[in-house]
Write a structure and sequence with these properties.
This protein is mainly beta. It has one helix and nine strands; from the N terminus they run E-E-E-E-E-E-H-E-E-E.
Length: 144
Amino acid sequence: MATSASIGFGTLFKSGNGAVPEIFTTIAEVTAITPPAMSRDTVDASHELSPEAWREFIAGMKDGGEVSLEMNFIPGGVDAANLMAELALTGSAALKNRQIVFPDGSVFAFAAILTGYEPDAPIDDKMAASLTFKVSGKPSLNGS
């Protein structure tokens, strides 16, 4: 059987502006995207009569995890200014709708807060920046 695998070239990361209808803007020069790392807690529900003294667990709360990006850092660029401004936001204003749009048209949609912006200017390599977003609520993955 032939594979359906493909490379990630052409994948975009977009942030919404909160307007109605919402407009999503692509962050430029992204070089790598790690989609949400989702997880679920487990809760120990063991009791004095748990069969043969084996621990028993029930499903707990789910966590949308984090999304990380690597990008080319352009200090005087629009994206650098926008990311600095976004870090200054507080409260509910810091939570924005985001999208990861894959080359096949599938979209990972989620709300997230920018929690990390780490520019780097090495002496012998291109300037780059790492971004981290904390997902709030349930992410969705919709096919094209």
